[in-house]
Each structure stands twice: as C-alpha cells, then as structure tokens.
Amino acid sequence: MEFNAIYVIVAREFKKFVRERSRLVSAIARPLVWLFIVGAGMSRLVPPVDGVSYIQFIFPGILGMTILFSAMFSSISIIWDKEFGFMKEILVAPVSRLAIVIGKALSGSIVSTLQAVMVLLLFPFLGLKLGAADIIGVVIICVLVSFLVSAFGIVIATFYESYESFSAIMNFIIMPMFFLSGAMYPVKLLPGALKLLAKFNPLTYGVDALKHMTSPLASGLLSPDFSIIADLAVIVSLSLIFVLTGAKAFERRG
Amino acid sequence: MAIIKVENLTKKFGSITAVNDISFNVEEGVIFGFLGPNGAGKTTTISILCTLLSPTSGNASVNGYDCAKEPASVRKSIGIVFQDTTLDKDLTAEENLLFHAYLYNVDKSERQKRIDDALKFVDLYNRKKDLVKKFSGGMKRRLEVARGLIHRPKVLFLDEPTLGLDPQSRTNLWEFITELPKRHNVTIFMTTHYMEEAEVCGDIAIIDNGRIIARGSPEELKKIVGGDVIYLKTSDKLKAKDEIKRNLDIDAFIRDGELFISVIKGDACIPELIRTLGDSVLSVRLQRPTLNDVFLKLTGKAIREDEGTDADTIKEEVRAYRRRQ
Fold first, then answer.
1. What residue numbers bound the domain in which B280 lies?
2. What is the pLDDT of residues B141-169, one digit of tens each?
3. Looking at the DSSP assignment, which residues form a beta bridge with residue B228?
4. For the domain that residue B276 is a member of, what is the CATH number?
5. Does the predicted interface ipTM exceed a cut of 0.85?
C-alpha cells in the first residue's frame, strides 16, 4: 500500500485546514446558526414529542450537516486543484489512482470528523444526556459518515473541471442532500416521492445512524427510520462503491 | 542510447488530428527541443509521453517503458514542468517539495537533503519557508524545476518553461536549464515557440500541423536556409561584384544599393572579402540565419506571425495572466 502518498495527501489537507482560519470559523458557525437560530425558532412552532424537543431531534441532523458541508468542500477542492493545476502534479506521480482517492477521502474524513466533534461538545446545552459509550459511538459513526460523504464528493468532483460549477453543486447536490436526509424532519413523514429520494440519499443513513446514538427514543415519530445494522451496512457498502468508482474515474485518460 | 522513442504516434481529438504519425528518438543526456507554433501538437505529444493522454495509434516509450502500457514505470522515470504552474500556492516552497518527495516515495533519510539541495540549486533556499503565493512567476517556475528533480528522474519535460516570464527571469531560468544535463544527469525534453531560445538545444525537432517537418542540431537546421548572408557596402558595387566572382567564385547580388552574398561560414568569409576588395569596402554586415528563418523557409510562414489573433495564444495569455496573480 502506498502509505507515503496517502499520508502526504492527508497532511496537505490538514495543514491547509489549520492555516485557513476562515474555513474553520464558517464550518463551526453554520451548525450553530442552524441549531440555535433555526432550531430555537422551530422549537416554538413544534411542541416536544414524547418529551423530545425539536432542537434535540435535529441535533444528529446538524452533526450530519456539519459533516456534509465540510466533507463535500474537502472533496470538491479536487476541482480547485484541477483548475489551478495542482491535480496534474498528483496525476503524473507514480501513485495508484486508488491511493489518491483513499488519501482524499481520508483527508475529508479527518477534517469533518474534527468539526463534527466540536459540534458534538454542545450536547449538554441541549439537555441531552450522553454517556461515554454514546459519545464514542457518535464519534465512530461520524468517522464512517465523513468517509462516505467525502468519497461521494470525490465521485461528484470527477464530473466537473471548473470551480464555476461550485454553485451548481451547492444548490443541486449539497442542499437537497441536507433537506432530504431526515435531518430537519423524519423521513417517515415525507410524501411518497420525496421519501423515495431520501432513501437514495447516502446522507440519510448517516443521519439515521447518528439518531440511533443520540436519540433517547426507540420508537415513535422522532425515532430513527431504519435499523442501525441497515444504516451501517449501507454506509460501508456505499463508501466502498464510491471509492472504487472515484478511482476508476481518475484512471480515465483522454 | 535513445531514452525516448516515438513511433508513428497519432492522436486525434474527434475530427482534429493533433499529432499526425510522428516518429523520433531522443538520445540520453541531450537538451532536446520540440519546436513549433501554438497548436502544432507539442503539448499533446508531451501529454502522451507523460501518460496523461493515451495515443490514438502508434507507440511512445520513455526509459524503455511503454507510455500506454506501463504508466507507473514511466511516471517514476520522468519529471515535468507544465505550461501552467502546478504548485500549491497555499503551501510553502519547502512544503511543495516535501509533498513531491512523499508522493515519489523518496527515502526518508534522503528527503530533507534532496529538498535543500534542489532549493539551493535554483536559488530559493532562503525563501523556503515562504508561501508560494508570494513568489514571482520566475521564482515559481524555478521552484517547479527544482521539484521536478527531487526524485532524480531520467527525463525532465519542460513545456514552454519561459512562457509568461519577463526577459530577466527568462535568462535566469535558462542558466539553470542548460546546467541540468551535466549536474543532474538528466535528459531535457522541452517545447517552446520562442525560436531564439531553442539555440541551447543539442537536438531539435520542428513540428507543424501535427507533423515533424525538420530534425537536427541548430547548426544543421540552419543549413536548410543556406547559411549566412553577408551584406557589403563598397565604393563601386559593380566592380566589387566582379572581383568577388573572379577571386572567390561567389555570386553577389545587389539589393537596395547593397551587395549581398550567401555563404555557409560567413565569419570566415569576411576576411577573404576584405582582402579581395581592399579599401573599397565601406561597411560589412553579417547576418546569421535564426531558427525562425528555418521555420519560415520550411513552412512559408513565421512561427509567431499569427500571434495575438490565434485562439490558443489568447488562451495562453489568459493563463499567463492568471499565473501572475
């Protein structure tokens, strides 16, 4: 395995992440806005269900959102690298395309897990009670979901050559993924067509797995939509598929 | 030994044939110049040799490895400086080289030494902790040359290395490039459309419309034009013309009140002319053919005559502009 190549791709991303303070600030600000402005506002409209407040309900969804944005941005940076030429430096190196994709996916995973953990630390302020085992469970799922979304982002990035496509990705991929993930409302409440779309959304299973870890409810309206086993099976198998698809797409030569 | 072999290479993009059945070898240790106007097929050929494009037909090999079938071995054997910068501007000079060293699996014990040596070679050692975005175009290009050498490649590709640089950086970069084969035991494969820059090449191929139209050293190519031209002003040009014919057996011609003769070795001919014509010589001017003249002779057009209108040129200017940002 090409550990040096994977390591250095991750190290570069991490170094740039630490250097770019603005990226970190906006990455932390976004979940705070959703949680304490949208969440607090909606809590006035939506009464607690089975003792669970709306803000508690969306907490796993906000973790999922944090991961979604940061992992997608990390992977979409591939388009930046293509536009500014750095991708060529990587592509002409004697490194397998699989190692490049794994390196990029791990970069996204690490950076977004870190951000998700920072948001996770807010749980006491929401009246959630999580034990050490729950917290470890959340972190593990954050790692898996981060990897999944990063790998998905890489596949998306292979379709685009210029960063002008960025707003298209934002509006037609990232935002729908967020709203159809069960983050803001249970998937089981969605009308038929949207429910189907939600089931095709990789993030749905990530958010659902996080709900298993943080939700105090095992049944009822606000409980998870799928079993944890199903969630994990989908997350792991989709991750594999996306990594292999990404590697295949990078293999392509003109 | 030929380190690069190209046989009947063709690359088509849809209905456009960018490279049309070209064949050539590059010997180890030379500076090989691949010359031609914009859009002639230079970058396409380099991209195939660098394994970034697959050929439509024909073969290309570098260091004995087939570019289409053994891309990993080819990639290990080559370093590349692309037309557009491929540095990460948000990393420092040293970090860019470190990234490269890891990517090419340079041994841990060697890494730092090679990076320092490379930075010293291109005079950027004292700027190694600076972010690349603070560098000028010339410094970036030098850093890219340094980076291309970190993994000790057998061949270094330079695609239009001086494009978008000011004259001083250009001269400066050439000093480094001409030293490379000796100091780093590497073969240079470079493209340029600045014919005057190709003078440093030991071996040249001229490409136009996807075909190689001439091949040889700069001196050999210039012979295609017919050698040097000597212009003479004399007190009596008709008498001088006769004397040149009688004594040196060279036909002189008259144009714009000047005599001119075409000879292979102009510098050696001048003393003979002066001896023959004596005091009647008022002035002598020697014009040596340039590679531009060679191109003109071969294609009937100057290599850069379409500059400023050609879509490619505009594209390159945009790139060069971006690079300066």
1. 227-287
2. 999 999 999 999 999 999 988 887 888 88
3. B263
4. 3.30.70.260
5. yes
